[in-house]
Specification:
Number of helices: 30
Strand content: under 5%
Mean pLDDT: 79
Structural class: mainly alpha
Number of strands: 2
Strand order of the largest sheet: 1-2
Oligomer: single chain
Shape: extended
Length: 679
């Protein structure tokens, strides 16, 4: 059997670099060559200047170190490397060359590569800053800080343009981030809109739309149409809406219906109801919602087309309800899961959709009832019957209850009582609400019906003890009867049952004010003011309390706020005038009284005050008898003015004579008597 290790140690001695110094033939060849005849200094210089491949010290990380020269020799070999240097992977290499690399003693290639990488990294860092600014702008807009959001959007736009210029200088235009540019411009235009800078927003949207590099930028013509709509240029708004809808495919029904709805509203603003009708009909056919269906009904109401109104109301009821009233988990073991999903986001969406559907259908029924039939009652009855046959049948009962309220608005108490009496045989909550409404009707009919009001109110509370409206009405009955303490207790119980019962909170504050508990009244009305921001009644109550406390400055401030919210209310102006008059500010009191007179000329107390003011100011021609005759163009105006001027002149002469006579008496009393001569 052959030896498998035979010839393992056989090799060509020409490659024996370890014993090359002991090879006499090799040494003789070196001695005869030019290298062997060099001096020691020149050999050292050559060995340090020239970098042979086999003499470069390579670290473990691949870094090529400096050349090491052999002591006493002009040449270095692979056997004389540093002890720490690893052995090269390839034993044979061409002298003076590295594998596959070009000769680059100044390392220029690595520097250029590093420079390119640093420039690209700088651009990316700038883009990250731009993206952060856009996010900060959006967060500021979400916090209702429109000014800060606009500043951040502008700064993002400036930095984004700087990035584009830098890439153009680096000849890297193909690496431009178009998505970032689009985002920055879109956010900037939106923030201009939020700050009501319509021209700037319009210019920014035009820049986006005209740039063909942005995908789907044509859809932003809707935003341009919205700007023209806000500027009341409805013809241009319609033009851009139609251009935008051409860019939207037919599969995107939600976007198309919204644009069509905008077109219809624009035609309504122009008074072109036929064109608006076509837009709303197309909108309902594609994918109608509650809002667009109601717009269609309102347009037909303006055109007074009864048959089409009925058809549109039925199409409104054909909109899917998309709400499942049944519990999804009825088993006992899934009780916790059922409780968990009872107020999740889907349940909240269903609740919101239910409210929208109810309000839309009830509003449409109230609007068309008087137009689709000879009488309001017949039209309303038709709407109720149609609703009972639709998926919104549960709204029919509420619509019946609302019918009674409509009769109350029209002053038909008998019909309202008849309708509400029908609900007494329904379930507890419905019967309780009906009895409460009957109690309210009886209470409004005066003291003669107070016993009926008490009876209906007790009936309502027996059916539903936690009905806050019934508790408030029971408190109102005690208030009318003069028992403020019991009234306060019922108001308090209603507020405990429902923390958002603003009627109970208002009545509690009013009762405390009447009882002289002004600090407690302030607490209740300030709580109510936090719930109902800028409510005129609440502000007037707070001002009246401060007026009772003697704080005129705070009372004037609150009455002024109420006057800004209701500038045509003459009673608020009279309150302000009385405070100014008590403070001695006649000019402000006159201005408030005069404004109150303009809005309510029949107020006798205001007329008396203004007449006294004109007489004190010696303006008889502005007295109200003359003023009224002049406004009515009566011939007696001149006669009254002359008589009034004569009376005023006579009054002045009488006052002057009285002053002169009193002055003469005083001077005679203080005069020195003449002395008599002695005889």
């Amino acid at each position: 059997m052959d030896d498998q290790y035979k010839g393992f140690n056989d090799y060509n001695y020409a490659y024996d670099t370890q014993h090359v110094l002991g090879d006499k033939t090799f040494q003789d060849a070196i001695a005869r060559s030019s290298l062997g005849r060099r001096s020691k200094n020149s050999a050292m210089q050559t060995s340090t200047a020239r970098i042979p491949t086999s003499d470069v010290v390579t670290s473990s990380s691949g870094f090529r170190g400096v050349t090491k020269a052999r002591k006493g020799s002009g040449i270095t070999t692979g056997s004389q490397r540093g002890v720490d240097a690893p052995r090269p992977m390839t034993a044979v290499r061409a002298a003076g060359y590295s594998g596959g690399s070009s000769f680059d003693p100044m390392k220029m290639a690595s520097m250029e590569k590093k420079s390119e990488e640093s420039s690209e990294e700088k651009c990316r860092e700038m883009e990250r800053k731009v993206n952060d600014l856009v996010q900060e702008s959006i967060l500021a807009w979400k916090k209702k800080d429109a000014k800060l959001a606009l500043e951040k959007a502008k700064e993002a736009g400036r930095k984004e343009r700087a990035v584009v210029k830098l890439r153009e200088q680096l000849s890297a235009v193909e690496q431009l981030n178009l998505d970032l540019t689009f985002t920055v411009l879109l956010n900037l235009a939106h923030q201009y809109m939020e700050n009501n800078l319509l021209n700037e927003a319009l210019n920014t949207y035009q820049v986006i739309v005209k740039n063909k590099l942005f995908a789907n930028s044509g859809r932003l013509k809707v935003n341009i149409g919205n700007i023209y709509f806000k500027k009341k240029d409805y013809s241009k708004a319609i033009k851009y809406y139609r251009m935008a809808i051409d860019q939207v495919p037919s599969s995107h029904k939600n976007i198309r219906t919204k644009i069509l709805n905008n077109i219809g509203i624009s035609f309504i603003k122009r008074g072109e109801y036929e064109e608006a009708l076509n837009a709303f009909e197309q909108c309902v056919e594609e994918k109608g919602g509650y809002g667009t269906a109601l717009n269609l009904i309102l347009t037909l109401y303006c055109l007074d087309d009864a048959e089409k109104m009925k058809d549109a109301f039925q199409r409104l009821l054909e909109i899917p309800f998309l709400i499942d009233d049944d519990l999804k988990y009825m088993e006992h073991q899934n009780f916790l899961l059922n409780q968990a999903i009872s107020n999740d986001s889907l349940k909240q969406w269903e609740h919101k959709r239910r409210q929208t559907a109810e309000s839309t259908i009830l509003t449409a029924a109230r609007i068309i009832s008087s137009s689709i039939s000879h009488s309001y009652a017949e039209g309303y009855a038709w709407c109720v019957e149609v609703i009972k046959q639709s998926v919104y049948a549960n709204l029919a009962m509420e619509l019946e209850m609302n019918k009674a309220i409509e009769h109350l608005h029209q002053g038909d108490l008998i019909a309202a009582n008849q309708i509400l009496a029908v609900f007494s045989n329904k379930d507890n909550k419905v019967a309780s609400a009906a009895a409460n409404n009957l109690a309210l009707i009886s209470l409004l009919q005066g003291p003669a019906k107070i016993d009926d009001a008490i009876q209906f109110c007790e009936q309502s509370l027996n059916l539903d003890r936690y009905n806050p409206n019934a508790l408030v009405n029971r408190g109102n009955i005690f208030f009318v009867m003069g028992d403020l303490d019991k009234a306060f207790q019922y108001y308090k119980e209603a507020l405990n049952n429902e923390a958002s019962c603003i009627q109970a909170l208002y009545n509690m504050g009013y009762v405390c004010r009447l009882q002289g508990k002004l600090e407690a009244a302030l607490d209740y009305f300030y709580k109510l003011n936090n719930i109902l921001l800028n409510n005129v009644e609440v502000l007037c109550q707070l001002a009246a309390i401060y007026e009772s406390l003697g704080d005129s400055a705070q009372a004037i401030e609150l009455y002024s706020q109420a006057n800004n919210l209701a500038p045509t209310d003459p009673a608020i102006l009279v309150k302000l005038a009385n405070i100014y008059d008590a403070e001695g500010d006649k000019s402000q009191a006159f201005q408030c009284h005069y404004d109150s007179y303009r809005y309510f000329p029949s107020n006798i107390s205001v007329i008396k005050w203004l007449g006294a003011y004109y007489i004190d100011a010696q303006f008889p021609e502005k007295a109200f008898l003359v003023r009224i005759c002049t406004d009515l163009k009566m011939p007696e105006a001149k006669e009254f003015m002359e008589k009034l001027m004569k009376a005023e002149k006579t009054h002045q002469l009488r006052m002057q004579r009285e002053n002169d006579s009193s002055h003469g008496k005083v001077s005679s009393a203080h005069s020195v008597p003449t002395p008599t001569p002695e005889t």
